[in-house]
Structures are given as structure tokens and as C-alpha cells.
Amino acid sequence: MKIIINIAKVYTKKSNMIISLILLFCFLPLFSLTAITGEQIEEIATAVVLILPMEYNNRTHDYEPIGSGSGTIIDKELGLILTNYHVIANPNNRNIPCEKFFILATTRPDIPPVPAFEAVFVDGSSDIDVAVLQITGYMPGSNVTLDDLFSLEWESPESWRSAEDLHLFDDIIIIGYPIYELDLEYVTINVTDGKLSGFLNQENVDFNRAWIKTNAQVSFGNSGGAAIDSEGRLIGIPTAFLEDVEYGKLTILRSVDLADSYIDNIREEVTPLSIDYISPQSFYDDIDYNQIKISDIVFASSQTRNEMPEDPGYSFSNINILYAYFDYEGMTDGYKCSLSWMYNDEKIVDDQIIWEWGPDGTFFVPLTYQNNSNMPVGDYIFIVQIEGREIKRGYVEVFYDQFTNNEIYLDTITVRGVIIDADTGRGIRGAMIGILKPGVSIMDFARLQDGRHYAGFGECNRSGRYIIDNPLEKGEAYSVIVLAEGYEPVMVDDALRIPNNAQNIYNFETIKLSRN
């Protein structure tokens, strides 16, 4: 019988099988006799950490957890953590990783994990469902260091075991973190065990043992954790389970063999971990973040004579320099600060400075391109971090406008705008906006279902910005349809009204979507 694994439950007519591919986030304790002792398992379990993907909230100006999963420390020198890609993926686009992760760890099985490190994504694949994070620093107030934790060091025969060396009915132990509604007070490490019951291959993967099957019980919370053999060697990453009404659950592990190429690349490219080991708390105890005030980031492409922003905005065309401005209060000379720029989700500048500009004032940071040529078209983000904690970020777009230097008026114009999440204020990548022709109402379109009634389309980029693909006529009113996966649709008659005196570029009002 051919089994199709899907996110949703699938009911087949040929059997009472209910199959669920469910991202794993907890499991029940179950032990059996193996060659490894309970004391040794407790030591190895300190290598397994709790991962919280974080999303920046423009309203609270802080990061908030948007999910959870497990991971395994595999290289202390580089600070590498192995996990599943679906654990670290952005919920709005599963092919893009989140920007930042909080890592929680513990040294004892009876103590909940505490915030210990910050980490970033360095490599992986959504198709293979493997990802590697690198630790970048300690969390404020952390009392756990990497030296306190175990590591299943990659390529060590004492720590890793290829699926090619496994056999049916081998003992398997699974380690990870069950978690419900991010209630961290009651989260502790959890262990189950079982037997190896088989292997599965995967299309387009040249390895017959891409997946390992086991009857070891798991559930929500375990994705990305560690599956070890009876000698404590890492053999797989708990990834999903199949649920059968009659026969129970069958857990699926990703073979560690498929992580080799990514870790090889990382070890060649990244530098050894550079976080301070003097003390995890170091300078943080002396900082009152509530006293530090950083204004919203303001962008400009030129300055006045006294170096203040001239014609500030959040969208620019045909520029060769970009300035990021912010006002500040409560700063102290000596703080370690990071002022960084990102372009299309990749960090391009990371200036590490020691603050020496006093407690309050206005600060700006310029960004230029090679030989002062025009800056590449795309989305830019400016980020302010103080002693390892992000305080503020701002978003800006650079686009190409062939009419920028010509004050001309045409009968048609180009319409652009932005679509954001109503709760977080973040742009919604992939959101679609359709503009109906003048005189065509939403009801007319719903009744006729004729694509020829569209005047133009737009699809949002990473920051939620779009440009309508066809020019629109001035002096007309247009009905608008907005759609995005996971959000309530917006359909409004005559929502876009373009005045007769509009110039060649028309900025439509910001559209806010609510999740359904």
C-alpha cells in the first residue's frame, strides 16, 4: 500500500490508517536495558538544548518566541548545534530561517533549562530537513557555559555512528524537550527508548538509509534532538512520526549521514567561537536596559549642512549612499555595541564599536556601495545591539526608478506599497495584491471570475513591499483584493483612488492583514 505522508491527517479507503507527519515537541519516558548507564545518559543529555526561534515585534521593540524545538551540540570549538530545518524555519516562509535563536540549556535532568546562548543559522536544507546553528554569545545573566555541557563531537567515532553500520533491532535512545505553550517553568529534559525497526529512502537522496524507523515513543517538542545508540553515539535527528490507529506510532529519524556535507562546509568557512569566557554574566549585570532609549530608525539618502537627515523616508531610488539615524538616551561610554546592515536577509556590515558619544544625542551610520556607485535594489535592515542584546531595527527599500531625475507627468503611473502583519508590523513576504479595472466591483469580479478584469498585480518581497506590474491611469478609482496564506483576505471597492495630479510614482496606503 502506498503511503502518502502529509502535514494533515490522511484517511485512506483501504485501511483504517491515519497518517500524520507531525513536527515533534515532547515525549513519554520509557527505558530499557542497554549498554549505556543512566548516569552516562544524563551526561550526554546536557548536549541536547532547547531552541527558541525568535521574531522581532515592531510594537514591543523586542524579540518574541514563535516556536520551539531541540538541538544537539556537535562542536564546542565552533559553537555548532545540529537540528531540523523545520525547527528554525520562518513560519511565514518555511524556506527561510529565522534571524535569531535563543538557546536554553541545563546541566541536570531535574532542573529546567535556562537561557544560555544566542545563535544564528549558518547552513542547512529544508528539503533534507537538516540545519546547523552557531552560538554567537551568552544570554544576559546566563550561568551556564559551553564548558559545563557535553558535546557529541562531529566525526568522532566515539560520538557519531553512520546509518550504514546500524542493524535491525538495535537499541535507540531519544533525548529532547517536551514543551507546551512555551511554559518553560515545567520543561525538563526527557528520554525514551526503543528498537530500530527499519529504514526508508527519500526521492532525490542518494542514500538508502536517509530515514531510520524506530518504535521509541515521541511527540510534540522533540524535533531536532538527539537519537543515540546503546553506546551513546549520535545516529539520527528525531524529525517526525507516523501514527496508526491499530498499531500505534512509528518514529522517523533523519540519519546523521545527511548532515555531513553541511558541517564540512561550515568547518571550512566559520571561525572558532569568540564569545567571552571570562564570565557569562560579564558586563550585563551593570546594564539597566530599561534606561536605554533608542528611537525608531530614520533613513535618508542625503544630509543637511549640520549632518541631519534630509528628506527622510523608508523607500529610495537611484541612490549611492544611505544613512541610518537614531536618537539615544541612557547610554554609558564603554558599552560594546554592534551596528549592522543586512541586505536581502544577509548581513553585509557588522561594525563592533565601544560607545564613546555620551548618554544622549543623535547618531548616524552611513552605508555606501563600491566606488560610490548606485546601491543595489533590494531590502535593507539596520540593527542596533548593545552588549549582545538587540535594541532596535529599521527597514528600508532601495528600488530602481527610471523617472527619478525627470520631473515629468504622464497619463499613467506606477503604484507601489507595503503589506504588513497587523500584530507584529512585519512585512508579509509572498502576499498578493490584485487591482481591478475601473468600474469593476468586487461583486462583479466574484460573479464573473474573469481574469481580464484585473488591471494589475503585485507580489510582496521580503519586507512586504510590492510594485504593481502594470501602469494605472490617473483620476480613476480601483477596487483592491489582497490575499496571503494564513491571513484574512481583504477586498474593498474603490480602495485605490489616484488623483489627476499624481506624479509617476504613487505610494498606496499601508495594508494591514490579520491572521485567520
Characterization of the model:
With 516 residues, this protein is mainly beta. It has 4 domains: 22-29 and 163-258, Thrombin, subunit H (Beta Barrel); 42-148, Trypsin-like serine proteases (Thrombin, subunit H), CATH 2.40.10; 287-399, Sandwich (Immunoglobulin-like), CATH 2.60.40.2550; 412-513, Sandwich (Immunoglobulin-like). It is built from 4 helices and 39 strands. It has a 6-stranded antiparallel β-barrel. A 6-stranded antiparallel barrel has the order 13-14-15-19-18-17. It has a 5-stranded mixed β-sheet with strand order 24-30-29-26-27, with no helix packed on it. A hairpin with a 2-residue loop joins strand 8 (89-90) and strand 9. The radius of gyration is 26 Å and the shape is globular. The model is unreliable at 1-34, 276-285 and 403-409 (pLDDT under 50).
Radius of gyration: 26 Å
Residue share in helix: under 10%
Question: What oligomeric state do these chains adopt?
Answer: single chain
Uncertain regions spanning at least 5 consecutive residues: 1-34, 276-285, 403-409
Quote the distance from N terminus to C terminus. 36 Å
What's the arrangement of secondary structure elements?
Layout: E1 10-11, E2 18-19, E3 25-26, H1 38-45, E4 48-57, E5 62-65, E6 69-75, E7 80-83, H2 85-88, E8 89-90, E9 93-97, E10 100-105, E11 114-125, E12 130-138, E13 171-176, E14 190-200, E15 211-214, E16 219-221, E17 226-228, E18 234-244, E19 248-255, H3 260-269, E20 293-294, E21 298-300, E22 302-303, E23 309-310, E24 315-317, E25 321-329, E26 336-343, E27 346-354, E28 361-368, E29 378-386, E30 389-399, E31 412-421, E32 432-436, H4 442-448, E33 454-459, E34 465-467, E35 472-473, E36 477-483, E37 490-497, E38 505-507, E39 511-513
Parallel strand pairs: 24-30, 31-38, 31-39
Antiparallel strand pairs: 1-2, 3-16, 4-5, 4-6, 4-10, 6-7, 7-12, 8-9, 10-11, 11-12, 13-14, 13-17, 14-15, 15-19, 17-18, 18-19, 20-25, 21-25, 22-23, 25-28, 26-27, 26-29, 29-30, 31-34, 31-35, 32-33, 32-36, 36-37
